[in-house]
Amino acid sequence: MGYQFETEKVVDFILKNSVKKVLIQLPEGLKPYGVGLAKEIEEKAGVTAYVSADPCYGACDLPIQEAEILNVDLIIHYGHSEILKEAQKRIKILYVEAKSNLDIGKVVEKSLPFLKEYRNIGLVATVQHVHKLEEAKKILEKNGKKVFIGSASGLVKYDGQVLGCDCSTAEKIKDKVEVFLYIGGGIFHPLGVFYTTKKPVITVDPYTKKILNIKEIGEKFLKRRNTIIAKFSQAKNVGVLVGLKFGQSNPQLAEKICMKYLKMIRKKELEIILTKLQPNPNPKILLEQYSTPPEIAANLLYMATYSFNDIVGKTVCDLGCGSGRLAIGAAYLGAKEVVGIDLDLAAIQTAKTNSRMVGVKVEWVVGDIEVLTGKFDTVIQNPPFGVKKHGADLKFLRKALSLANTVYSIHKSGEKNRRFIEKTVTKNLCGRITTMVETNLVIPYLFNFHKKPKYRVKVDIYRIVKK
Length: 467
What we know:
The protein is 35% helix and 22% strand. By secondary structure, it is α/β, with parallel strands linked by helices. It folds into 3 domains: 98 residues, Diphthamide synthesis DPH1/DPH2 domain 1 (Rossmann fold); 109 residues, 3-Layer(aba) Sandwich (Rossmann fold), CATH 3.40.50; 203 residues, Vaccinia Virus protein VP39 (Rossmann fold), CATH 3.40.50.150. The strands form 4 sheets. A 7-stranded mixed beta sheet has the order 14-13-12-15-16-18-17, sandwiched between helices. The mean pLDDT is 90.
């Protein structure tokens, strides 16, 4: 058998504690063994054994209520180490870690080509394979690698062990290593290591004998997550879901989250404040001076503030600020220092009037964006789309990424333009797009060539960071 199910230990525990009924719980990967284990335990211990068919997502996901309904005396929990001591007060629980018997030597050696550019390696594994880490360490050291294994603490029982909710063993050694080697099946745990440490993770799967660099998968999941967070930041009504399972239920945290969001400035309130600001009195078509609508400015600022913490207490710059809607919004939301720059003197004079009306401090600069020097935490901008002057949008992107590590920028939507922006950012400007949210920009009647009272243009709000 591929796992150490320790049936003799289980039977001995049952007999010593006069158990009559047991509930067997296994994670998805071990469920195929459930019926066989139940039969063996029933035969050897003379008990009635139930097998839980519900999903099991860790040692905190215990079937306490189910056990009480079935009136069992013991839960036998396979595949995880104990983390909830207080659960034993409700019902007896026997943990069987189900260590793997699979050989890892050949598959670790198979991973060496994936590690050739690294010297300092961090080792992590799930509880099924954590006892094999020393063997893996010797193989890697034999091939000239320096190997680190993080010490156990908190919820973690073994050195080098990672849980779905705790990657502290990896976090402790992240500054010493260039890459992590994960021994185990699936991508759930190595993704946790990737997100926690921001280091490359190579997975070694003893079951399939396959090696995988999860960087591409991790970045894809992270981008999707950031997009979901960005969409969440635009929501008008927010609900908090509370799980009721023993070991996972935390209504106090839910209440704390609700209170936190109640204290936030509501996006609609921000929109109202930004709506009161005066627009540029004399916009120039050659500069593509279309004001950022209040709802789009609020969406961008709300996302930057509450989803990514890029505004509060930060130094912020608004390139091509116009009448100051983005810069004033950032100052109102709690930026440490805000600078707004625009080539148009009339626009800057209007921005000064607007900032006085709202009661915020912004440093206003008249001039081309190229005159601006220094470093900021965040740049926010609604640059020209490059329709009247080709390349105007790229000039703003280039300058923004030279001033700050994080940039929020609005650009015309469409697949062709998206591909162009992504290529420019990643290949020419050494940046990375973490989030892109599509929205509608309403352009009012401004110029003589406009035929309608207003136009709707699809635009994308980008969050870009330096690589």
